Amino acid sequence: MAVSKTQPPDRIREAYAAGQRLFGENRVQEFGGKVEALLDLKDADWHMIGHLQTNKAAKTAELFRAVDSVDSLKLAEKLNAAARALGRKLEILVEINVGGESAKSGLVPGSSALEDLLGSAPRLDALVFRGLMTVPPLTSDPQGARPYFRNLRELRDTIASRNLPSVAMDELSMGMSHDFEVAIEEGSTCVRVGTAIFGERAKA
Ligand SMILES: *Cc1c(COP(=O)(O)O)cnc(C)c1O
């Protein structure tokens, strides 16, 4: 996945021309402002990967095919209602806080909040549960992320082995510019790469 947040439409078009189809954005408002200029890229696949407030659910369901950062049952319910109102399905990943960091979004492995979300999958019938996503604690050495990636894979395997109704666990979104090689070694199915593709982002 090419993480195109903060990149203007021209840069995104360049990546598209080079063959890139899967893109990640982290702000509904920012993407909403550039989507007009990208509408002709018919087979581009736009994923929301940033923290989402529930009041953005309707707009998100309009703009994106998938949300890779679902971190609460409440958000899932809002996205489900929004997708249903549009008569479409929205693919989702459940975001996991593998490092248990208080400042980070994501559900904690073993928590009742995670169980509630997974258990609600059959009722949330406009959502397609496809797997897990994580942003591990920042470490200077990419090898430092390895135990977190491994934990996410093991959590995915554990959940998959339970055969929960309406919960598929095929996708493991982990790894960014500085640690994607390690993430792939640990079983990532989707690395989210921004800087290594587009260069340093302008500071906001
Ligand atoms: C920005 C972002 C990325 C990409 O980060 P890079 O270090 O630029 O590759 C990946 N995942 C999420 C959730 C992001 O917000």
Describe this structure in words.
This protein has helices at 9-17, 28-34, 57-63, 73-85, 112-119, 146-161, 180-185, 195-198, and strands at 2-3, 22-25, 45-48, 66-70, 90-96, 127-134, 167-173. It is globular. The longest helix has 16 residues, at 146-161. With 204 residues, it is of the alpha/beta class. The chain has one domain (2-198): Alpha-Beta Barrel (TIM Barrel), CATH 3.20.20. It has a 7-stranded parallel beta sheet. The structure holds pyridoxal-5'-phosphate.
Q: What distinguishing features does this structure have?
A:
204 residues, alpha/beta, TIM Barrel, 34% helix, binds pyridoxal-5'-phosphate
Helix/strand layout:
Elements (H helix, E strand, L loop, with lengths): L1 E2 L5 H9 L4 E4 L2 H7 L10 E4 L8 H7 L2 E5 L2 H13 L4 E7 L15 H8 L7 E8 L11 H16 L5 E7 L6 H6 L9 H4 L6
Parallel strand pairs: 1-2, 2-3, 3-4, 4-5, 5-6, 6-7
Short description:
This protein has eight helices and seven strands. The protein has 204 residues and is of the alpha/beta class. It binds pyridoxal-5'-phosphate.
Q: What is the element string, with H for helices and E for strands?
A: EHEHEHEHEHEHEHH
Instruction: Determine the CATH topology.
Output: TIM Barrel
- CATH homology superfamily name: Alanine racemase
Instruction: Look at the structure and give the mean pLDDT.
Output: 97
Largest sheet: 7 strands, parallel
Tell me the number of structural domains: 1
User: Could you tell me the number of beta strands?
Assistant: 7
Separate helix tally: 8
Integer-rounded radius of gyration: 16 Å
Into which percentage range does the β-strand content fall? 15-25%
Spatial separation of the terminal alpha carbons: 22 Å
Shape: globular
Q: How is the largest sheet built, in terms of strand order?
A: 1-2-3-4-5-6-7
- What structural class do you assign from the helix and strand content? alpha/beta
